[in-house]
Design brief:
Blueprint lengths: L1 E2 L3 H6 L3 E5 L2 E6 L3 H10 L1 E5 L4 E6 L3 H6 L14 E7 L5 E10 L2 E6 L4 H12 L5 E4 L8 E5 L5 H12 L15
Parallel strand pairs: 1-3
Antiparallel strand pairs: 2-3, 4-10, 5-8, 5-9, 6-7, 7-8
Length: 180
Amino acid sequence: MKTLPIHEIHRSLGAQFTPVLDWEVPANYGDPTGEHLAVRNRVGITDLSFRGRILITGVDRAKFLQGLLTNDVLKLTEGQGLYAAILNPKGRMLTDLKIYAIHEALLIDLDREVTDKTVQILNRYKLVAKAKMEEAERQPYVIIKISGVFNCSKSAAQYTISHLFNSSLSITSCNANKRH
């Protein structure tokens, strides 16, 4: 069973673990009802580091993906992310994903079960682009989802992460969904 990069932090916070695919992930921290209410009324986090990740590097990385995804990858600057999908030539969705611009690379976050197939699809269309793809499972990327009713900003997310984990993890993207 694989463990998340910050597994010991979860354990020290009292996490109870459950298997997801071949990963041991936090199921709750002792009070599932209280955790649910915290997300509904304040803030909560989910460690998504068990998901599939593809790292794309090279000078043509954004141009290469631009014609394959349903969103504008060229507008991303370092620290930003967006939601997109890969379509087949008939317009049928093959998979959805999130893509983040990180230092001299693009990091694709997607369902682990479709990672290999997605790499095959992307390689099929790579042709002459100066871009390199690799599964980023062995890379030390931690993907934390911050959910709840809060004013989302990188500084607020950074504050939440640094105080919760007593760490200076870097925040790459923050998207707010306002509830009315």
